[in-house]
Design goal:
2 copies of one chain form a homodimer.
Chain A (H helix, E strand, L loop, with lengths): L3 E5 L1 H14 L4 H16 L7 H11 L13 E3 L6 E5 L5 H19 L1 E9 L5 H10 L3 E6 L21 E5 L2 H4 L3 E5 L6 H10 L8 E2 L14 E2 L5 H17 L20 E8 L15 H12 L12 H13 L2 E3 L1 H14 L11 E3 L1
Parallel strand pairs in A: 3-4
Antiparallel strand pairs in A: 1-11, 1-12, 2-3, 4-10, 5-6, 5-10, 6-7, 8-9
Helix pairs in contact in A: 1-2, 1-11, 2-4
């Protein structure tokens, strides 16, 4: 169904989000990184992780509960290994950590072919896809995972939520091959809790085996849901465990205590982030069929996958790339009327000028 | 249902598998690596990738069709990057390539913290889990993916099989924490084609959305199946694409031409392998709660996930570890009567002494 969007110039959006972060105590550089990220999410149509969500998360887990630390300095932990970095982020704003970590992993990959950055005492970086898209646009193969803010997901065969929605994000530098980066990016739960709430409001059922009730039994009734299930049964469970294991090796907290800063203070409560970048030249054997170069070979493989009657398939990242094109054509970030109103509540909170909704250009998409 | 197994001493098993490989022209070192791998698969209860399967695959794609090259030398492709290696495997036996690549990735990780080995012109390495279990037992975080031998899987939203079953395998060095390595290892299809054939023999239906018929429509009738579906809809599709993309960057062949050595000879036809190892010290921030060391922290995280009512859950790799224990207790590899008979057919093929089934000890498990 076509939807009406208001067009907000990116500078105007970023000024408000920066003001809101600064009002919460974040430093100018953090506020700028936070706003830049929210613009990226909106540009790619990721409405679940826009500026409204970012500042709501700060309220829930961050400065609202003295969980995150504005102005925190990232501390580099000494390591004997040349191609990796390990950071204690001291609960700095997630977007600031993530942009800096991905930049650092890119520098390591430039030198060593592959580089990783592991982050202890992290906060929430919102949408891992944003960081890998960014790295992929710059020409790198990028991966990130993190442990989610709270335990909402039941392990395969279990009853109690002891895992986060623990996402994985992979980005591939496929612009030279197909015009946009392929981005494989999702949570390891079938659906997010936000989706459950949306279906409850709309009076619609959940897909089967997406969530459980208070007895740990699968339910499709959104009103009965107490926890989520991993996608693909034991396979999604395994993928979710990967994030917890990597975090556990880094120094991560117990999943059921995550972001519960006052519960068992002798335990840690932060999230952990893991970033990895590979330089595409560091994979290349240089022997592509028919004299193709690397990008042409990647294109030939993709064309083969989407040929033979599969022309209707789309590629992961394609919807996001198409939304970014529409955003560029519109000349600003696209928000619904309800989103504009919510941004204006944030403006009131931080004493920033309101967005005049009736003065904004609109577009129906 | 309890099953009767015949106990074959490992040396006796390896002697036959080595003889079979040598009879097909493989060199002694390759035959030994091939046999070692088949013993590992059987030890961990991976009956779908034992010596019988290994030699059957060689018949289908390898020396049986002049696809693989006994005695091939692995060629190292020069790279400017210190933490990676790129190999042209010249269609050497897959198990030989994989063991050597994982050893090399471990050496890189020892020095740089992380290391990758990318392999062009690879063959078939059977079961990626075997290599990551091995690395995890030696104390490393290991990952591998590969492009599968043939295109059997339909991309999400498509009709034609243009993807392999493209597996992913992750191994974690969790022996100090819980006594066995956690191994997350599966194909990106819901089921394997072998499972479809088994259900057809047994007259049982497939799970829903596991396979399609000749019109590309989902079917649960194993007799109607022409191709498989990825698990988790777009998520499994994305995971399958990762293998094709990594392979495409390495120099990989078009998926629908893979292992079809005589179809469009101007194209390549080999598989590609990717290996990555991370030294666990290269992740560690060193700041574990309650004075725990790294292994104790990993154990605490796992205990939290499997606590709170989730005590009945199992961990990925646990079934394989339990089978390895049963194998060790039995004092030999465990095979059914039908498997023993099939090994004796191989013995006949290569002029090796038969296994006297009635002289073998048995155990019911």
């Amino acid at each position: 169904m076509p939807e009406l969007f208001h067009i907000v110039p990116e500078a105007q959006h970023n000024a408000l989000v920066e003001a809101a972060y600064c009002h919460r105590g974040y430093h100018a550089d953090e506020a700028a990184e936070g706003a830049r990220f929210c613009a990226e999410a909106t540009r790619h149509g990721i409405r679940t992780h826009n500026g409204l969500k970012a500042l709501h998360l700060d309220h829930l887990f961050g400065t609202g509960v003295k969980g995150w630390t504005p102005g925190a300095q990232i501390e580099e932990i000494p390591t004997r290994f040349a191609a990796v970095k390990v950071w204690n982020a001291n609960r700095k704003l997630g977007q600031s950590i993530a942009y800096r970590a991905m930049d650092t992993a890119i520098k390591l990959a430039d030198q060593y072919g592959v580089g990783t950055v592991s982050v202890d005492n992290a906060t929430h970086y919102l949408w891992g896809g944003g960081y890998v898209i960014d790295a992929a646009r710059r020409g790198y193969i990028a991966y990130t995972n993190c442990t989610a803010a709270i335990a909402e997901v039941v392990p395969f065969g279990g009853k109690a939520p002891t895992l986060g929605t623990n996402p994985h994000s992979w980005g591939f530098p496929t612009i030279p091959a197909i015009g946009f980066p392929i981005v494989i990016d999702w949570a390891t739960s079938v659906v997010a809790m936000g989706r459950v709430q949306q279906l409850k409001r709309e009076g619609k059922p959940l897909p089967p085996f997406a969530a459980v009730d208070k007895d740990g039994k699968p339910t499709t009734d959104p009103a009965a849901v107490t926890a989520l299930l991993p996608f693909g049964a034991h396979k999604g469970y395994g993928l979710s465990l990967i994030d917890e294991l990597v975090a556990g090796f880094i120094g991560g907290s117990l999943p059921t205590l995550r972001n519960q800063w006052n519960n068992r203070p002798e335990e840690k409560h932060g999230c952990s982030f893991f970033f990895q970048v590979i330089h595409p030249d560091a994979l290349s054997g240089g022997a592509f069929a028919l004299g193709r170069n690397q990008a042409q070979n990647v294109k030939a493989v993709i064309d083969d996958v989407l040929g033979h009657g599969n022309e209707a398939c789309i590629l992961p990242g394609q919807i996001e790339a198409e939304w970014a094109k529409k955003t560029a054509a519109a000349g600003g970030l696209l928000f619904s009327a309800a989103e504009i109103d919510a941004f204006n509540e944030l403006a009131t909170e931080c004493g920033h000028p309101q967005w005049n909704r009736s003065a904004l250009k609109t577009i129906t998409l």
